[in-house]
Amino acid sequence: MMAGFVLVHGAWHNSETWDAVAARLRAAGHVVQAVDLPGAGPLAAYPAAFRQRPLDAAAFATEVSPNAGVTQDERTAATIAAIHAVNAQTGGKAVLVGHSLGGITLSPVAESVPDALAAVVYLTAFMLPPGMPAIAMIQHPLMAEALVPSLLLADPEQVGALRLDTQSTDPAYRARLKDCFYGDVDQATFDRLAVNFHCDEPVGVCIAPSAITAQNFGRVPRHYITCAQDRAITLAGQQAMVEMVDAAMGGATVMHSLDSSHSPFYAMPDDLARMLIAIAA
Known about the structure:
Blueprint: E1 4-8, H1 19-27, E2 31-35, H2 48-51, H3 57-62, H4 72-90, E3 94-99, H5 103-112, E4 117-123, H6 134-138, H7 148-151, H8 156-159, E5 161-163, H9 171-181, H10 187-194, E6 200-202, H11 204-207, E7 222-227, H12 235-249, E8 254-258, H13 264-267, H14 269-280
Helix pairs in contact: 1-14, 4-5
């Protein structure tokens, strides 16, 4: 049976994240739309310092981000529009899938349009209980071994963004960037993909508290795919978020697991696509 999928990328990424998985879903007869969130991919704005090479580290660390004004409401609206478009094609309800920081978009979308969704799937993503912003989970003791904080090159409060140098030529920094997101992806693939990452993730989306309720969000069947080798969101952090949301919402999140890094859409797209198709069924 044909299903509809709406795919939401994570921080510093874009809709191309999903190309390999989307191709497999379409080959199986499903309708797929991968979203470029406001402030990401072709919609991202870059600080002038990012374009100047060699990098002026001091300027890069202090220039206010032109992406700083992007809001979670904008991202929520863009995703809802994609869901309505997919549902119009299929005549049914969409499976909404989000990776990493994309999880903080899934939650308000599911809260806003629960009846438009067949399921919501968090792929090693921020699934947060009511009242918790992403930044609180990022700073949680269970996330102490995550590599993301070590990659940030500016004070988020000063520049209005979580800022990476995605085009860095420093071998140590690039190795840490790869280990964080792509530990089980070959070097050539990482080098090809990193060209398209944006550098500034708007900090405002990370400080907005989760506003899910049992009456709306809690009605949508929810799934969580853990990634055991993840160094961006620790496995302990992933599991803790599921436990907190289940305690707040009642009912249990359906759990799935992959023995992958943070990016199974590149490391094991066949396994991930099969898992999503099974969830849709």
